[in-house]
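Supplementary Methods. Inverse-folding protocol.

Structures were first reduced to a discrete structure-token string of length 312. This string, shown here, constituted the complete conditioning input.
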């Protein structure tokens, strides 16, 4: 069921929601959180679709906030979707004029009572998400540095303005790689004296993995540039030879260990809905991300590969 409201109020939106539930048979809320999506008109379709897909695992009320025409008169339009593409509710809020600068005053009355709030910026995010009015409403704040014009600069801003509850899809994208790297290095291995993470230019996940490995191994881990897609290799230098994990196609990785047979490992690149669903599984501060972000060296650009046999 879809309900369109023009030049409306939060009270009218709440009344329309209750009426929609009544028409659908008095469905109960049963929602575990409120997800605020801060986006624009161009990106709202993909962002809401990803949020609806994630909501199948985490039933929630999705509040998509779109600020339009800042010089127009203040006006609130709403599109309410109930019982369609997800088990929760989706409310698209289009705010015109100065009202867009006070979106928190519109969103606050529409939060589901007594459940956590997550705010997600699919595109450009504020330098300090916790100080943004819509970020201040949330226990968890999700950004995506890969969508920024300058991912490294945005990652540096997030590091400088980090507050408990912040996270970034650059870190979420690194989860399968971190799991594979941890499983690899959990095996008995020669001392690692250095490491290298190769990825396409502007890949924040690679910067974070390099910082995380450097912390865990107490060894220098460089960040080099490859042709992609995404992260293409992790190389560890040991006295017995290099341990390498290479992934040229974005789907399958090859683990090469000196003196052992090469192994193939599934390591596919995940879509936005999968990343968002992972972030919604935990709502407590991610201390490992905070530690890694603090340790990341974002002052110098990533280097071109120095090994002649490094994957392109």
């Amino acid at each position: 069921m879809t309900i369109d409201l023009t030049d409306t109020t939060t009270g009218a939106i709440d009344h329309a929601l209750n009426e929609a539930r009544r028409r659908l048979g008095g469905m109960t809320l049963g929602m575990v959180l409120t997800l605020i999506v801060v986006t624009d008109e161009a990106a709202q379709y993909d962002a809401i679709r990803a949020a609806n897909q994630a909501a199948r695992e985490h039933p929630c009320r999705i509040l998509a906030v779109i600020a339009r025409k800042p010089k127009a008169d203040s006006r609130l339009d709403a599109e309410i979707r109930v019982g369609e593409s997800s088990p929760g509710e989706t409310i698209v809020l289009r705010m015109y004029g100065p009202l867009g600068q006070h979106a928190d005053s519109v969103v606050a009355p529409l939060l589901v009572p007594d459940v956590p709030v997550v705010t997600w910026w699919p595109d450009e995010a504020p330098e300090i998400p916790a100080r943004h009015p819509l970020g201040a409403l949330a226990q968890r704040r999700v950004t995506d540095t890969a969508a920024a014009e300058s991912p490294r600069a945005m990652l540096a801003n997030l590091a400088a303005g980090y507050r408990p509850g912040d996270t970034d899809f650059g870190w979420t994208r690194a989860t399968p790689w971190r799991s594979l790297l941890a499983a690899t290095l959990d095996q008995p291995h020669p001392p690692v004296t250095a490491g290298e993470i190769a990825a396409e230019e502007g890949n924040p996940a690679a910067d974070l993995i390099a910082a995380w490995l450097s912390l865990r191994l107490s060894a220098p881990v460089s960040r080099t540039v490859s042709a992609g897609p995404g992260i293409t290799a992790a190389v560890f230098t040991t006295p017995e030879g290099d341990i390498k994990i290479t992934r040229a196609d974005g789907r399958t990785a090859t683990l090469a260990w000196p003196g052992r047979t090469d192994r193939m490992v599934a390591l596919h690149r995940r879509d936005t809905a999968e990343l968002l669903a992972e972030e919604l599984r935990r709502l407590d501060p991610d201390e490992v991300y905070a530690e890694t972000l603090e340790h990341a060296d974002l002052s110098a650009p990533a280097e071109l590969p120095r090994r002649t046999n490094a994957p392109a």
